[in-house]
Amino acid sequence: TNHFPGIPVWPLPRKQATGRFETSFIEARRAGLEVFLRHCLRRSQLCVDTPILKKFMRAKTDEAFDLLKKEFDSRPPNVKCGEFKAAFASDLRNSGISPDDGKITTCKAFLEAHTSQLRELTDGLKEVTDAQRAVTKAVSSAAVKVSKLCEHEFETLASVGLAENPRSELASGLRSQSRTLESFPAMHYDTLLAASEQELLEAEAMQEALESLEAMQKELSDVEGKVTNLEETLIRVRAGGEIPSTGTGMARMLGISAPKDRDERVRQMEAELAEKQDEAAALKDFRAAARTVLATREIETFLHAKVAEHRQTKQSF
User: Fold this and answer.
1) CB atoms within 10 A of CB 79
2) Which of 268, 270, 250, 272 is nearest to 259 (CA)?
3) Dihedral sign (CA 26, 28, 34, 40)
């Protein structure tokens, strides 16, 4: 989201310090990476129009991945903004309207409650799934015990002419029921659980996309604050005021560092101000583009996909 603010990106599977070489964890992480890539590959903006996913695929070690992250995180805002606007050029061109802040605010409020409810639902479905599997196992065990009991009493009952054994019919019915349950040990509640887990991840991804815009706004406010401070400082300095210390005053007093010319220092401050102004302008442009794509495309796409997944889950269940 640092590179695609306002865009829900499927999360990478979490790492863990212990047990990371266990077969179950390796398989779960492999499956998680597969899902991550499948979601990314659905969007050309993430896998074709920008180089980050291609480079991520080439990173074979944790060290290479960390270096890649530092490389992309260190890029200036104008580079990130240019890449984002190029990737989402058609969306920005076709939006034709200013982003609707009301839609973003409403979506944020919805997700705050929705993710909490989805977590509760997921926990509840885990309990149901585990309980149903336990029932299935218990029914299978009971069916086996009834069958053994029938076998044990058969000869004794037959010796007194009791050919009919109602318990045998019960055992047959239990075996049939057990076979049915073993075909679907969780009675399809695992289907609901998997759908709920996926829906929660998608909601959290959208929530993170919204939060990334808030982070951008904070970063922009910080840079604009620095611009204001530099402007006010330059006004005072140009009027003959004292130039702020750069932290090397003692070094100059001791002769370790050469004295700085006042005009040279003013030029440095002017250059720093121009750099911060450019950074603020790029961040403002970047945030506006991200808000436009979020409000005019991403929120609606997210909600439509949610309903489609509900329909599919209903049919599967």
Assistant:
1) 13
2) 250
3) negative
DSSP-assigned states of every residue in the chain: --SSTTS--PPPPPP-SSSTTSHHHHHHHHHHHHHHHHHHHT-HHHHTSSSHHHHHHH--SHHHHHHHHHHHHTS-HHHHHHHHHHHTHHHHHHH-S---HHHHHHHHHHHHHHHHHHHHHHHHHHHHHHHHHHHHHHHHHHHHHHHHHHHHHHHHHHTTT----HHHHHHHHHHHHHHHHHHSTTTTHHHHHHHHHHHHHHHHHHHHHHHHHHHHHHHHHHHHHHHHHHHHHHHHHHTTPPPPP-S-HHHHHTTSSPPPPHHHHHHHHHHHHHHHHHHHHHHHHHHHHHHHHIIIIIHHHHHHHHHHHHHHHHHH-
Nearest C-alpha neighbor of 279 from the set 75, 139, 77, 105? 77
CB atoms < 10 A from the CB of 174, how many? Answer: 18
What distance in Å separates the CA atoms of residue 203 and residue 114, rounded to the nearest whole number?
A: 8
Amino acid (one-letter) located at 50:
T
41-89 per-position pLDDT tens digit: 888 888 877 888 888 888 888 888 888 888 888 899 999 999 999 999 9
pLDDT at residue 96, rounded to an integer: 64
Determine the Cα–Cα distance for residues 229 and 223; give it in Å rounded to an integer. 10
Q: Using one digit for the tens of pLDDT, what is the confidence trace for 200-249? A: 999 999 999 999 999 999 999 999 999 999 999 999 998 888 888 765 55
* Residue range 108-131: mean pLDDT, rounded: 94
pTM of the predicted structure, to 2 decimals: 0.79
d(CA 184, CA 271): 70
